[in-house]
RNA sequence: GCGGGAGUGCUGGAGCGGUCAAACAGGCAGGACUUAAGAUCCUGUGGGUUAGUCCCUACGCAGGUUCGAAUCCUGUCUCCCGCACCA
């Protein structure tokens, strides 16, 4: 059979008849979505095919179940990789990207994915990013987009700053060998921290994989504590601590070496020392493991608010600048880091919680307070509360909750991104540019730094307010901005009056099933929740969370056992597989290997198994002449429908495939047309092209993709047939066993059964003959007087266990 | 260091308190069909034993809970992943 012709044929017909295009309003909706793909110019390999197939199967299944299924596609086409690749290929990123997209579309169509192509989105389209800019201005208006000078992560390879989420173990997310540097720059931020509490608390309600939920919790990192004001040089400096019970043990303070206001604390005498130290800190890479804790005295002293004690303030390399207030109270007796620091610089280590040996190491557990004035003898746990209360009463501190989550740095010093719609005017300052879209200038020079900085005509504009001289912001937005709301635009992709129609979004949202990789746990999957909450507060959506069910698919590994990727050189291309086996076979194989959430390995021999099955199915429809069902088939079919439906519902495709195979194997020569059709429907989500082809072959004119999913008739499921089958199976084994013991190559077999079992065993006579390699088989009822039974074996027969005699 | 997940046949993997551990697929071996190969079909694939029986050994290792555990608990080893000086 010619797979490729069949595939092409149906792909064309689907497209022509707009089979997968949907409109809102017709019945119950179901929204299936894959994470916004970045259109790499390298194209798709089998790993991608695996991802898309998983969602496509569900979309097709839900569609047949009668849901109004929204299953759209688009491309996250702005971003650094495209710009870099384009520069390398000496092509404009736009041209380069669009070529890549066209290639992607072609390949995805060849996979038989049932997208509604009419909703196609591309984030580099000004009609799309116009709304990114619109959102930015809304955020600006609400104080959620702001500009500040801050210590930021800089990747020297990318030549741009990065968000915290894009720094992995001190390295750039795109360059695993490049250390991220710290710089102080004026940058644009989104105030994600405004929703920190809600983002954190909402996690529990999500039907997401547990590990993702835990990762998000750790990332947002909630901790309860108290902010205590320490007075330094007459000014109040707040610090955050979760252990106020150890406040009597504070023997010094440490401020981060990156702190913006550090120099305010440095005295004239200490200036040289501190500057020398800062130089050293900057030259050693920030996050290398096990950096020794070091610091220098600033010359200033702080007053411990609880007892008025004067304590030295140091500057140190181990204090994070962007957590809490960038300064800590050091309790060397009860914090391991402070302990190491104090040991090194011979600062007093004071015991205030009894329980450990603070000469050897810091005692960080809870215990009983000592050397703590009126709180002596109190348990740490109680003391945390009591001391907090005391400080609050005296207006020296305030209990707070602190989050690790930081505001999202969205500025990028690159060309291929959404321009930030801001104009700087000497007179009016920061002015929003409401004349959207702010497009990218086409003619720019690539190579050195941010190309936009040299686009003079584009930069120099009139101030929208005073019409005076002004200049554009040259930073563009992080690509994760574009992917934070695309799922809403799919609901109304062509709207040019507003970002989207509220009613349409209300109908389609939330996303019912979202697939993608685990790597987005603390990036995209937080950003898009943040956006959703912001839109809700704007009154644009009526939901709190964008996704009901998140599914993380496993990774496809190559034959070498490593994750399939172009750079590793272990890719298998869908085109190639398609040529030999057909894409339906590949789809089937990918999901039958293992549970879809697990990593799987591509194997050449493995796909043969799926191929054999597909061929068998195809051949069967070539030959079979439908007749009537017997009760056994009816039972089998209904049971299969029931179980396959459940398995699809729970994304246990591997198990569904097994049941599909078992069902097919149970077809004898007597199968009704209706049963065959039901089988095809069950097959359709996995192998849509072949299902369509055979659907027509048996005489239908409609699209099976649009047919109704078969329903279960529970009454027809009869466990009796299963038991009978098992009995036959056992009998088979028994005969073979005896045959082997007696060492007869082609025995004559005599079977003796109880009279009521005679009928179904007779039906299995041929099957037994083949599988036992017997010369002949005769089946007698035990009470048959004419039976051949020279050794009188028939009296051994029991219910469900016939007696046998071989010769 | 903290957190999460996983260890089942020759392999990928099902099973996640109980009627049978290994469904399904792949591999390998034997057989049938062929002049032959391929395709296809059948059988076997821990050990012992037997005319189809039964026994033993087996779900990383060691304990425990239970009438009963691959499945629950504790400890331990190995592997994978995430976070990592968060005060």
Q: Could you describe the 3D structure shown?
A:
- It is a single chain.
- With 807 residues, the chain is an alpha+beta fold.
- The protein is 37% helix and 18% strand.
- The protein is built from 26 helices and 33 strands.
- Strands 10, 11, 12, 13, 14, 15 and 18 form a 7-stranded mixed beta sheet that branches. A 4-stranded parallel beta sheet has the order 2-1-27-28, covered by helices on one side. Strands 6-5-9-19 form a 4-stranded antiparallel beta sheet.
- The longest helix is centred in the C-terminal third of the chain and has 24 residues.
- It is globular, with a radius of gyration of 35 Å.
- The two termini are 45 Å apart.
- The model has no long low-confidence stretch (mean pLDDT 91).
- It binds one RNA strand of 87 nucleotides through helix 7, strand 11, strand 15, helix 10 and strand 30.
List the helices and strands and how they pair.
Elements: H1 3-16, E1 29-34, H2 46-64, E2 68-70, E3 74-75, H3 80-88, H4 93-110, E4 121-122, H5 126-141, E5 145-155, E6 160-162, E7 167-168, E8 171-172, E9 181-190, H6 196-202, H7 210-220, E10 222-232, E11 235-241, E12 252-256, H8 262-265, H9 271-283, E13 295-303, E14 310-316, E15 327-330, H10 336-345, E16 353-354, E17 368-369, H11 380-393, E18 397-403, E19 408-409, E20 411-412, E21 418-419, E22 422-425, E23 429-432, H12 456-459, E24 460-462, E25 469-472, E26 476-477, H13 479-482, H14 486-489, H15 502-508, E27 513-516, H16 524-538, E28 550-552, E29 556-557, H17 574-581, H18 583-592, E30 600-601, H19 604-623, H20 631-649, H21 653-665, H22 673-683, H23 688-697, H24 719-742, E31 748-753, H25 758-763, H26 765-772, E32 776-781, E33 803-806
Parallel strand pairs: 1-2, 1-27, 3-4, 12-14, 27-28, 29-30, 31-32
Antiparallel strand pairs: 5-6, 5-9, 7-8, 9-19, 10-11, 10-13, 10-18, 12-15, 13-14, 16-17, 20-26, 21-26, 22-23, 22-25, 24-25, 31-33
Helix pairs in contact: 1-23, 3-4, 17-18, 18-19, 20-21, 20-22, 22-23
The chain binds one RNA strand of 87 nucleotides through helix 7, strand 11, strand 15, helix 10 and strand 30.
């Amino acid at each position: 059979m010619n797979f490729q012709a069949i595939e092409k044929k149906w792909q064309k017909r689907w497209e022509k008849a707009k089979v997968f295009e949907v409109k809102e309003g017709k019945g119950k909706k179901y929204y299936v979505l894959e994470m916004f793909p970045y259109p790499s110019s390298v194209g798709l390999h089998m790993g991608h095919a695996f991802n898309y197939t998983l969602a496509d199967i569900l979309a097709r299944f839900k569609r047949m179940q009668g849901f109004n299924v929204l299953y759209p596609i688009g491309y996250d086409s702005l971003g650094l990789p495209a710009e870099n690749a384009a520069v390398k290929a000496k092509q404009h990123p736009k041209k380069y990207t669009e070529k890549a997209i066209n290639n992607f579309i072609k390949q995805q169509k060849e996979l038989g994915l049932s997208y509604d192509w009419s909703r196609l989105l591309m984030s580099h389209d000004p009609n799309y990013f116009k709304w990114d800019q619109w959102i930015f201005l809304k955020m600006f208006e609400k104080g959620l987009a702001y500009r500040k000078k801050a210590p930021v992560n800089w990747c020297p390879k990318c030549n741009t700053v990065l968000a915290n989420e894009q720094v992995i173990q001190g390295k750039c997310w795109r360059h695993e060998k490049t250390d991220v540097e710290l710089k102080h720059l004026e940058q644009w931020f989104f105030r994600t921290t405004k929703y920190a509490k809600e983002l954190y608390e909402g996690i529990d309600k999500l039907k997401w994989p547990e590990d993702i939920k835990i990762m998000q919790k750790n990332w947002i990192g909630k901790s309860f504590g108290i902010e205590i004001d320490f007075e330094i040089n007459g000014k109040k400096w707040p610090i955050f601590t979760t252990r106020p019970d150890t406040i009597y043990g504070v023997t010094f303070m440490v401020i981060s070496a990156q702190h913006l206001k550090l120099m305010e604390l440095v005295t004239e005498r200490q200036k040289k020392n501190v500057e020398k130290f800062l130089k050293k800190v900057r030259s050693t890479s920030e996050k290398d493991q096990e950096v020794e804790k070091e610091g220098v005295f600033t010359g200033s002293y702080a007053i411990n608010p609880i007892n008025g004690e004067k304590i030295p303030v140091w500057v140190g390399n181990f204090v994070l600048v962007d957590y809490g207030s960038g300064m800590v109270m050091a309790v060397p007796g009860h914090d391991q880091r402070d302990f190491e620091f104090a040991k090194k610089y011979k600062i007093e280590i004071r015991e205030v919680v009894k329980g450990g040996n603070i000469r050897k190491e810091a005692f960080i557990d809870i215990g009983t307070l000592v050397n703590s004035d009126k709180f002596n003898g109190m348990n740490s746990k109680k003391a945390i509360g009591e001391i907090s209360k005391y400080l609050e009463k005296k207006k020296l501190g305030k209990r707070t909750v602190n989050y690790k989550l930081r505001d999202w740095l969205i500025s990028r010093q690159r060309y291929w991104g959404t321009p930030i719609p801001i104009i700087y005017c000497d007179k009016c300052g920061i002015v929003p540019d409401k004349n959207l879209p702010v497009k990218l200038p086409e003619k720019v020079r690539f190579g050195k730094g941010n190309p936009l900085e040299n686009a003079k005509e584009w930069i120099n504009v009139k101030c929208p307010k005073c019409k005076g001289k002004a200049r554009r912001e040259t930073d563009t937005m992080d690509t994760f901005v574009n992917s934070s709301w695309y799922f809403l635009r799919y609901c109304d992709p062509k709207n040019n009056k507003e970002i989207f129609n509220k009613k349409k979004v209300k109908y389609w949202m939330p996303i019912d099933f979202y697939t993608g990789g685990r790597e987005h746990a603390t990036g995209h999957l937080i950003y898009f929740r943040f956006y959703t909450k912001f839109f809700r507060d704007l009154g644009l959506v009526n939901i709190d969370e964008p996704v009901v069910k998140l599914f993380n698919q496993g990774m496809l590994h190559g034959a070498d056992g490593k994750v399939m990727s172009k750079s590793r050189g272990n890719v298998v291309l869908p085109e190639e597989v398609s040529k030999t086996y057909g894409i339906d076979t590949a789809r089937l194989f990918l999901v039958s290997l293992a549970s879809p959430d697990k990593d799987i390995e591509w194997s050449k021999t493995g796909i043969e198994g799926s191929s054999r099955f597909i061929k068998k199915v195809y051949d069967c429809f070539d030959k079979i002449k439908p007749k009537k069902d017997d009760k056994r088939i009816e039972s089998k079919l209904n049971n299969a429908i029931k179980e396959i439906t459940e398995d699809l519902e729970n994304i246990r495709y591997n198990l569904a495939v097994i049941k599909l195979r078992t069902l097919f194997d149970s077809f004898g020569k007597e199968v009704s047309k209706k049963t065959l059709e039901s089988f095809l429907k069950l097959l359709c989500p996995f192998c849509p092209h072949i299902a369509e082809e055979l659907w027509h072959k048996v005489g239908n004119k409609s699209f099976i993709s649009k047919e109704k999913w078969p329903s279960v008739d529970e009454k027809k499921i009869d466990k009796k047939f299963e038991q009978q089958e098992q009995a036959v199976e056992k009998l088979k084994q028994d005969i073979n066993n005896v045959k082997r013991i007696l060492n007869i190559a082609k025995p004559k077999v005599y079977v003796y059964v109880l009279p009521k079992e005679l009928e179904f065993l007779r039906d299995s006579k041929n099957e037994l003959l083949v599988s036992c390699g017997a010369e002949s088989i005769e089946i007698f009822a035990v009470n048959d007087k004419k039976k051949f039974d020279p050794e009188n074996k028939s009296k051994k027969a029991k219910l469900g266990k016939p007696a046998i005699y071989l010769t």
